[in-house]
Automatic annotation (TrEMBL):
SUPFAM superfamilies: CBS-domain pair, MgtE N-terminal domain-like, PRC-barrel domain. It comes from the Bacteria. Residues 426-435 have a biased composition (Basic residues). CDD domains: CBS_pair_Mg_transporter. This is CBS domain-containing protein/sporulation protein YlmC with PRC-barrel domain. It comes from Antiquaquibacter oligotrophicus. The keyword Transferase does not apply. InterPro entries: CBS_dom, CBS_dom_sf, Mg_transptr_MgtE_intracell_dom, MgtE_N_sf, MgtE_transporter, PRC-brl_dom, PRC_barrel-like_sf, SH3_actinomycetes. Keywords: CBS domain. It holds the Pfam family CBS. Residues 351-412 form the CBS domain. Residues 408-435 are annotated as: Disordered.
Amino acid sequence: MSTTRAFAARLVGCSVFDPNGDKVGKVRDILVVNRAKASPRVVGMIVEVPGKRRVFLSIGRITSIGSGQIITTGLINLRRFEQRGGEVRVIAELLGRRVSLADGSGTAQIEDVAIEEVGLGDWEIGQVFLRRPRTGPSPFGKGATVFASWSEIADDTAPGEAQSATQLVASFADLLPADLANVMLDLPETRMIEVAEELSDDRLADVLEEMPEAEQVDILAHLDDERAADVLDQMQPDDAADLIAQLSSERGEALLDLMEPEEAEDVRFLLTYAPDTAGGLMTNEPIIVSSDATVAEGLALIRRHELAPALGAAVCVTLPPYEAPTGRFLGIVHFQRMLRYPPSERLGTLIDATLEPVHADTSAAEVSRILASYNLVSVPVVDENHRLVGVVTIDDVLDYLLPDDWRSTNDEPELQPTTTASVPVKGRRTRNGTR
C-alpha cells in the first residue's frame, strides 16, 4: 500500500523493487534541494545496488513508497551517484543539525524528517522531528521531543561548529566496516570527520582499515593524540604500521609512545621492514601452536569470531616461544586437513611438508606469485634464523597490487539494469526532466 508521508530514517535500508518484483537495491539516503520560500523539495533517493555502488533514483521514477519497500518504474541509471551543488542529503547532512524554533522556545536537534507527497510524484519535507536539549542532571536522560514544520525552524549551527553525527551513526549501525567506509568516502569532508569522531574506537579502527591512505591520514589529523593512539591500538598491527608510516616522524613517534606498550612494540617491529617486502605486508599475529597441540585445540583457536578468515585458514607450528618472533618454525597445518582427523591428533603430525615459508625480505611480487601458484590464502614469513615473524594473507597482497584509489574509483563498467521498458534512462533527471 502506498503512503503519502514517510520518515526518512525509516526508509533507510528499505528494499527497492522494479514492477516485476525483482529487487533493485536498498535505500541509503534521501536527496533534497532547498527552496527560498518553501520546504525543501525531494528530488530522489540514493540507492545502493549490487556491487555496493550508490546510484541516483529520481523521485519521479518511484511509483510507491510504503510497507517497508519502494516500487520503481524499472528505469534506473546505474551511473555512480555524484552530489551536485545545492543538493542536501537528509540522513548524512540534516540529521543531527541544531536548529532554533521560531516561537522562541529554544534550540533542538533534528532526529528525523517526514517527506510528504504534495502532488502527483511531487514530494517535499513536511514535519521535522526534533529533540530538545536535556534539562535534568542525569546523563542517561533525553530531552523532550517536538514536531515542527520546516518554516518553524532555522539553522542554529555556528560557523565552524561541529554537527552532531549521533543519529547518522545509528542509521549506519548495520553496515559492515567496508560498506561504512564507502559511505563515509561519499560524504563531504567535514561530515566525514564528524562521523569519524562519533564512532567508537574499535568501529573507527575497522573502518580506517578499509579506507585509502589519504583519507586515513586526514581523519587521524583531526583526532587528538590520545584518541588517535586509542584507535591505532584497535587496528591490526600491519594496518596501524602502514598508517603511521604515512605520518610525520614526529607525530608517528608521539602516537607510538601513547599506544599500549605491547601494541606499539608490534607496530615498531613491522615498521623495520620495507613496504614492498613480505615483512612489510605481513601481520605478526598469526595463530601459533606447539607440535603437541591437538586438532581440537587448533580448531578452537580458528573458531574465534574476531579472527580474519584468511588468518584462520591455517595454524603455524613452531618451537617455543609461541609469539612472533617465535622459536624455529616447523610448518603450517591447514584447517581443512584438521577436519579430516580425530580431535586428539597431534598437529605436529599434520604439517604440510610441501609449503616453504618466505623470508621477510622476499619481494611482494614474489609473494604474490607464490600465493597464486599454489592457490594459497596465506604464506608464513621467517627471518634469517628461520623463526616465524608473521604471515602474509591474500588480502594484504590484493591491497598492495590494486591501485591506491581502488576503493573510490568511478571507472567501473556500466551495469545493465533489469527493466520493463525498452529505452533506459540516459541521464539523472527529476520528474520534470530538469536534473
